[in-house]
């Protein structure tokens, strides 16, 4: 794995070559028993050695044992270098700072101080034995090089302080990134549930449970058999396993209803789960479950409990909001039915009653009345019928957006895309062919969500400046194409590596594909870096029905 060089590494490696160059110049021009060509040859060898060690430090920066051995070997080489270059007076004795910097930057404090004290002890021992036999006491030798030792000690201490500060900053950055990911996930959940109907809420919650907890498997199980209830869903298991898992959960229905706090449950043949019952006042009883790994620590489980509590409260809000919207829609329908009934009763039904009464009366008396009077009554009946027709047409016009020119599905889509275009300074072209009035409501809702999600992803994540949306409606099939000129991404890598979440802007692509497949359609996406993204969708109209 190729590691990216940090600014710290670049600074240390630059210092290695700069310090070696300066000490080499001092060594080259100082008086020594070595010839100039010998000095040059030694300097070339040193540069080659430094290059080799620098390459090792870069390549094996994450391998502590290799790094320790390499630093120890380079330090030993510096000690040996003192013999031909002047012993305790050699300028290369200062060069030991460079391996010390590497040790302090990447290895433990214990190893750094052990290396430093070993270097000082070995240098003093070798110089006292081989270079100053009988000339100095050991204490005099220490005082003579006290500046070197103080610089090494202060440098090591400074690097250790920097290392601690760097580690603390790294932890703080990770916590900040984790907080930002958490906030983004909350935003994505809110955005997804605002665009998606509650029938897809289970999939959204289970997907984001996996994402927030960084586990591999989770489920959202709803204890309800009603058709308008959100569907139970899971993430991480196959379709066959999902069926078996939910059948197993049915056996614990009553136990789950009694739980009020997060709880652990072992399911035979499934493993250990952390679960929580969603606190709701609605007709639903839902449970969120998370599959635990075998090496899950106690601290990690406490963090998972906090995440599940948050997700359970969020799910309760969404489900209760769905219930309120459902009740509100029922009230709207009831009020509209009452309004239509009253309107029909006050106008159309009265006119029709008058026509029926007049017709019945005419039938009884027409043979006894003059022809002119019969024709006059027929004209009155015709006028009443025309009045009833006009009143009926008026009622139909007030109910039909197609006839009254009111808000339509197409108008809603165009308005949404126009708003996106103006707010984000993006050109969005929407081209539609076919009769959108005859499009069933469920298809209208799904298409709006897909178009909205795709356009939003192209703007937020693709940084697109132009989006082309083409919709073709026929009685048999619906074809949708959305193309943008954004930055694009590698779809093969996304599918192979399971990176749909990061590459596609949250779970947007998964939601679009799920919507298409749930209605019997086919979903295809193609993209390349720098060439934008194209989404193609094909849904047979009669498949869902």
Q: Name the assembly state.
A: single chain
Helix content range: 55-70%
Please provide the ordered H/E string of secondary-structure elements: HHHHHHHHEEHHEEEHHHHEHEEHHHEEH
Give the number of helices: 19
Contiguous uncertain segments of 5+ residues:
495-506
In short:
This protein is α+β, with helices and mostly antiparallel strands and 545 residues long.
What does this protein look like?
By secondary structure, the protein is of the alpha+beta class. It has three domains: 166 residues, no CATH class; 130 residues, 2-Layer Sandwich (Beta-Lactamase), CATH 3.30.450.40; 119 residues, Histidine kinase-like ATPase, C-terminal domain (Heat Shock Protein 90). 65% of the residues lie in helices and 12% in strands. It is built from 19 helices and ten strands. The strands form two sheets. Strands 2-1-5-4-3 form a five-stranded antiparallel β-sheet, with helices on both faces. 25% of the residues are buried. One of its GO terms (cellular component) is membrane. It catalyses: ATP + protein L-histidine = ADP + protein N-phospho-L-histidine. Its cofactor is [4Fe-4S] cluster. Its main location: cytoplasm.
């Amino acid at each position: 794995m190729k590691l990216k060089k940090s600014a710290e590494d670049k600074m240390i490696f630059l210092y290695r070559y700069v310090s070696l160059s300066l000490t080499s110049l001092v060594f080259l021009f100082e008086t020594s028993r070595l010839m100039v060509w010998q000095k040059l040859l030694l300097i070339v060898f040193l540069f080659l050695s430094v290059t080799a060690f620098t390459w090792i430090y870069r390549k094996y920066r994450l391998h502590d044992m290799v790094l320790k051995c390499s630093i120890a070997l380079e330090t030993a080489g510096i000690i040996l270098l003192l013999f031909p270059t002047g012993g305790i007076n050699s300028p290369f004795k200062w060069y030991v700072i460079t391996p010390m910097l590497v040790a302090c930057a990447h290895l433990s404090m214990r190893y750094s101080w052990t290396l430093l004290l070993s270097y000082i002890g070995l240098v003093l021992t070798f110089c006292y034995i081989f270079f100053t036999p009988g000339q100095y006491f050991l204490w005099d030798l220490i005082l003579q090089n006290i500046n070197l030792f103080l610089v090494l000690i202060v440098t090591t201490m400074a690097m250790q302080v920097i290392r601690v500060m760097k580690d603390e900053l790294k932890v703080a950055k990770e916590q900040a990134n984790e907080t930002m990911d958490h906030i983004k996930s909350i935003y994505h959940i809110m955005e997804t549930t605002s665009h998606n109907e509650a029938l897809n809420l289970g999939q959204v919650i289970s997907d984001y449970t996996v994402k927030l907890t960084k586990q591999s498997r989770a489920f959202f199980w709803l204890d309800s058999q009603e058709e308008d209830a959100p569907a139970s869903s899971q993430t991480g298991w196959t379709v066959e396993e999902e069926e078996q898992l939910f059948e197993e959960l049915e056996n614990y229905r009553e136990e789950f209803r009694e739980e009020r706090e997060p709880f652990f449950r072992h399911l035979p043949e499934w493993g250990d789960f952390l679960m929580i019952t969603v606190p709701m006042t609605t007709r639903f009883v839902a449970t969120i479950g998370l599959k635990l790994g075998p090496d899950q620590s106690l601290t990690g489980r406490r963090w998972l409990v906090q995440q599940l509590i948050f997700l359970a409260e969020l799910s309760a809000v969404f489900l209760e909001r769905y219930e309120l919207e459902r009740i509100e829609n029922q009230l709207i329908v009831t009020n509209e039915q009452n309004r239509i009934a009253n309107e029909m009763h006050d106008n159309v039904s009265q006119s029709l009653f008058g026509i029926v009464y007049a017709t019945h009366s005419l039938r009884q008396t027409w043979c006894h009345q003059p022809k002119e009077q019969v024709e006059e009554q027929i004209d009155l009946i015709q006028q009443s019928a025309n009045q009833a027709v006009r009143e009926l047409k008026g009622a139909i016009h007030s109910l039909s957006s197609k006839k009254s020119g009111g808000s339509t599905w197409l108008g809603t889509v165009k308005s949404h895309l126009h708003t996106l275009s103006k707010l984000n300074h993006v050109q969005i072209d929407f081209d539609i062919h076919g009769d959108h009035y005859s499009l069933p409501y469920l298809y209208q809702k799904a298409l709006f969500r897909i178009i909205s999600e795709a356009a939003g992803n192209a703007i937020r994540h693709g940084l697109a400046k132009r989006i082309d949306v083409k919709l073709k409606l026929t009685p048999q099939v619906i074809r949708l194409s959305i193309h943008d000129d954004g930055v694009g991404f590698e779809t093969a890598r996304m599918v192979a590596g399971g990176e749909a979440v990061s590459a596609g802007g949250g779970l947007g692509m998964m939601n679009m594909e799920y919507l298409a497949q749930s209605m019997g359609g086919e979903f295809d996406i193609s993209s390349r870096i720098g060439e934008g993204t194209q989404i193609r969708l094909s849904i047979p109209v009669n498949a869902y029905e």
